[in-house]
Amino acid sequence: MPTPELSFYTNPKSRGRIVRWMLEETGAPYATEILEYGTSMKAAPYLAINPMGKVPAIRHGDTVVTECAAICAYLADAFPQAGLAPPPHSAARGPYYRWLFFAAGPLEAAWTNQALGVVVPPERSAMVGYGSFEQVLDTLEAAIGERVYLAGDRFSAADVYVGSQLGFGMQFGMIDKRPAFTRYWAGLEARPAKRRAEQLDGAMA
Question: pTM score, two decimals?
Protein backbone atom coordinates (compact mmCIF):
# COMPACT_ATOMS: atom_id res chain seq x y z
CA MET A 1 0.00 0.00 0.00
CA PRO A 2 1.50 3.40 -0.95
CA THR A 3 2.42 5.84 1.81
CA PRO A 4 -0.19 8.61 2.20
CA GLU A 5 1.00 12.00 1.01
CA LEU A 6 -0.76 13.55 4.01
CA SER A 7 1.04 13.43 7.37
CA PHE A 8 -0.49 14.44 10.68
CA TYR A 9 1.70 15.49 13.62
CA THR A 10 -0.10 15.36 16.94
CA ASN A 11 -0.37 14.28 20.54
CA PRO A 12 -3.67 12.76 21.72
CA LYS A 13 -3.71 15.16 24.66
CA SER A 14 -3.67 18.28 22.53
CA ARG A 15 -5.67 20.40 20.11
CA GLY A 16 -4.65 17.77 17.59
CA ARG A 17 -7.97 16.13 18.45
CA ILE A 18 -9.69 18.86 16.45
CA VAL A 19 -7.61 18.10 13.38
CA ARG A 20 -8.04 14.34 13.83
CA TRP A 21 -11.80 14.86 13.62
CA MET A 22 -11.40 17.03 10.53
CA LEU A 23 -9.17 14.43 8.87
CA GLU A 24 -11.72 11.71 9.54
CA GLU A 25 -14.41 13.89 7.99
CA THR A 26 -12.39 14.26 4.77
CA GLY A 27 -12.06 10.50 4.33
CA ALA A 28 -8.52 11.00 2.96
CA PRO A 29 -5.77 8.55 3.95
CA TYR A 30 -3.14 10.01 6.26
CA ALA A 31 -0.17 8.95 8.34
CA THR A 32 0.00 9.89 12.02
CA GLU A 33 3.16 10.82 13.90
CA ILE A 34 2.77 11.10 17.67
CA LEU A 35 5.06 13.64 19.29
CA GLU A 36 5.79 14.00 22.99
CA TYR A 37 5.81 17.23 24.96
CA GLY A 38 9.26 18.54 25.80
CA THR A 39 11.15 15.91 23.74
CA SER A 40 10.26 15.05 20.14
CA MET A 41 7.98 18.10 19.93
CA LYS A 42 11.01 20.31 20.59
CA ALA A 43 13.54 18.30 18.58
CA ALA A 44 15.14 19.62 15.39
CA PRO A 45 13.19 17.42 12.92
CA TYR A 46 9.85 18.71 14.13
CA LEU A 47 11.03 22.28 14.66
CA ALA A 48 11.79 22.29 10.94
CA ILE A 49 8.06 21.71 10.41
CA ASN A 50 6.75 24.00 13.14
CA PRO A 51 9.31 26.31 14.79
CA MET A 52 6.82 26.90 17.60
CA GLY A 53 7.41 23.31 18.68
CA LYS A 54 3.72 22.61 19.20
CA VAL A 55 1.10 20.38 17.65
CA PRO A 56 -0.92 19.88 15.57
CA ALA A 57 0.55 20.32 12.12
CA ILE A 58 0.05 18.64 8.78
CA ARG A 59 2.25 18.09 5.76
CA HIS A 60 0.40 17.61 2.48
CA GLY A 61 2.93 16.91 -0.22
CA ASP A 62 5.28 19.91 0.03
CA THR A 63 2.80 22.08 1.93
CA VAL A 64 3.01 22.45 5.71
CA VAL A 65 0.10 23.95 7.64
CA THR A 66 -0.04 24.73 11.37
CA GLU A 67 -2.77 26.23 13.60
CA CYS A 68 -6.02 24.32 13.97
CA ALA A 69 -8.34 26.75 12.22
CA ALA A 70 -5.95 27.09 9.29
CA ILE A 71 -5.57 23.31 9.02
CA CYS A 72 -9.35 22.83 9.03
CA ALA A 73 -9.81 25.46 6.31
CA TYR A 74 -6.96 24.00 4.25
CA LEU A 75 -8.26 20.43 4.44
CA ALA A 76 -11.77 21.52 3.45
CA ASP A 77 -10.37 23.08 0.27
CA ALA A 78 -7.82 20.33 -0.39
CA PHE A 79 -10.52 17.62 -0.35
CA PRO A 80 -13.58 19.29 -1.92
CA GLN A 81 -15.25 15.94 -2.52
CA ALA A 82 -15.98 15.79 1.23
CA GLY A 83 -18.14 18.92 1.00
CA LEU A 84 -16.68 20.52 4.12
CA ALA A 85 -16.70 24.12 2.86
CA PRO A 86 -19.44 26.10 1.12
CA PRO A 87 -18.75 27.00 -2.53
CA PRO A 88 -16.55 30.13 -2.79
CA HIS A 89 -19.25 32.46 -4.09
CA SER A 90 -22.20 31.06 -2.13
CA ALA A 91 -24.12 32.95 0.54
CA ALA A 92 -22.80 30.52 3.16
CA ARG A 93 -19.12 31.31 2.48
CA GLY A 94 -19.19 34.50 4.53
CA PRO A 95 -20.62 32.90 7.69
CA TYR A 96 -18.22 29.98 7.17
CA TYR A 97 -15.17 32.24 7.34
CA ARG A 98 -16.69 34.46 9.98
CA TRP A 99 -17.40 31.79 12.59
CA LEU A 100 -14.34 29.69 11.85
CA PHE A 101 -12.08 32.63 12.64
CA PHE A 102 -14.33 34.05 15.35
CA ALA A 103 -13.64 30.84 17.26
CA ALA A 104 -9.91 31.02 16.50
CA GLY A 105 -9.70 34.63 17.68
CA PRO A 106 -12.24 36.11 20.11
CA LEU A 107 -13.62 32.83 21.48
CA GLU A 108 -10.32 31.13 22.24
CA ALA A 109 -8.76 34.30 23.63
CA ALA A 110 -11.80 34.98 25.81
CA TRP A 111 -12.11 31.54 27.36
CA THR A 112 -8.34 31.21 27.80
CA ASN A 113 -8.23 34.48 29.75
CA GLN A 114 -11.28 33.37 31.70
CA ALA A 115 -9.59 30.08 32.62
CA LEU A 116 -6.42 31.92 33.68
CA GLY A 117 -8.35 34.35 35.81
CA VAL A 118 -7.29 37.31 33.69
CA VAL A 119 -9.67 40.18 34.32
CA VAL A 120 -9.71 42.90 31.70
CA PRO A 121 -10.81 46.27 33.10
CA PRO A 122 -13.95 47.46 31.29
CA GLU A 123 -12.20 50.63 30.17
CA ARG A 124 -9.50 48.52 28.45
CA SER A 125 -11.83 46.01 26.78
CA ALA A 126 -11.28 47.51 23.32
CA MET A 127 -7.62 46.44 23.52
CA VAL A 128 -8.24 42.69 23.82
CA GLY A 129 -10.16 42.26 20.57
CA TYR A 130 -13.09 40.37 22.08
CA GLY A 131 -14.67 42.95 24.36
CA SER A 132 -15.74 40.71 27.21
CA PHE A 133 -16.20 37.00 27.80
CA GLU A 134 -19.97 37.37 28.11
CA GLN A 135 -20.15 39.38 24.90
CA VAL A 136 -18.34 36.62 23.02
CA LEU A 137 -20.67 33.92 24.36
CA ASP A 138 -23.76 36.03 23.70
CA THR A 139 -22.62 36.63 20.11
CA LEU A 140 -21.99 32.96 19.47
CA GLU A 141 -25.24 31.93 21.14
CA ALA A 142 -27.16 34.29 18.85
CA ALA A 143 -25.36 32.87 15.81
CA ILE A 144 -26.19 29.29 16.74
CA GLY A 145 -29.75 29.90 17.89
CA GLU A 146 -31.74 26.90 16.69
CA ARG A 147 -29.39 26.16 13.82
CA VAL A 148 -27.98 22.71 13.14
CA TYR A 149 -24.93 24.09 11.31
CA LEU A 150 -23.26 27.49 11.31
CA ALA A 151 -22.73 28.01 7.57
CA GLY A 152 -25.85 27.31 5.58
CA ASP A 153 -27.68 24.01 5.80
CA ARG A 154 -24.62 21.73 5.61
CA PHE A 155 -21.97 20.60 8.05
CA SER A 156 -18.62 22.30 7.43
CA ALA A 157 -15.12 22.81 8.82
CA ALA A 158 -16.54 25.75 10.77
CA ASP A 159 -18.66 23.31 12.76
CA VAL A 160 -15.61 21.13 13.45
CA TYR A 161 -13.66 24.04 14.86
CA VAL A 162 -16.41 25.99 16.63
CA GLY A 163 -17.95 22.80 17.97
CA SER A 164 -14.62 21.58 19.28
CA GLN A 165 -14.02 24.84 21.12
CA LEU A 166 -17.48 24.75 22.68
CA GLY A 167 -17.30 21.06 23.55
CA PHE A 168 -13.89 21.41 25.21
CA GLY A 169 -14.86 24.59 27.03
CA MET A 170 -18.09 23.12 28.38
CA GLN A 171 -16.41 19.85 29.37
CA PHE A 172 -13.91 21.65 31.58
CA GLY A 173 -16.26 24.31 32.88
CA MET A 174 -14.74 27.21 30.98
CA ILE A 175 -17.85 27.87 28.88
CA ASP A 176 -21.39 27.96 30.24
CA LYS A 177 -23.61 25.05 29.21
CA ARG A 178 -26.19 27.24 27.56
CA PRO A 179 -29.06 25.31 25.93
CA ALA A 180 -28.12 26.44 22.43
CA PHE A 181 -24.53 25.29 22.96
CA THR A 182 -25.38 21.87 24.39
CA ARG A 183 -27.96 21.17 21.68
CA TYR A 184 -25.56 22.19 18.90
CA TRP A 185 -22.66 20.19 20.35
CA ALA A 186 -24.77 17.09 20.94
CA GLY A 187 -25.54 16.88 17.23
CA LEU A 188 -21.90 17.30 16.27
CA GLU A 189 -20.32 14.83 18.67
CA ALA A 190 -22.68 12.12 17.45
CA ARG A 191 -21.18 12.24 13.95
CA PRO A 192 -19.46 8.97 12.90
CA ALA A 193 -16.22 10.75 11.99
CA LYS A 194 -16.10 12.41 15.40
CA ARG A 195 -16.57 9.05 17.11
CA ARG A 196 -13.84 7.45 14.99
CA ALA A 197 -11.49 10.30 15.86
CA GLU A 198 -12.21 9.89 19.57
CA GLN A 199 -11.53 6.16 19.39
CA LEU A 200 -8.24 6.68 17.55
CA ASP A 201 -7.00 9.32 19.97
CA GLY A 202 -8.25 7.36 22.95
CA ALA A 203 -6.25 4.31 21.85
CA MET A 204 -3.11 6.44 21.50
CA ALA A 205 -3.48 8.43 24.72
Answer: 0.95
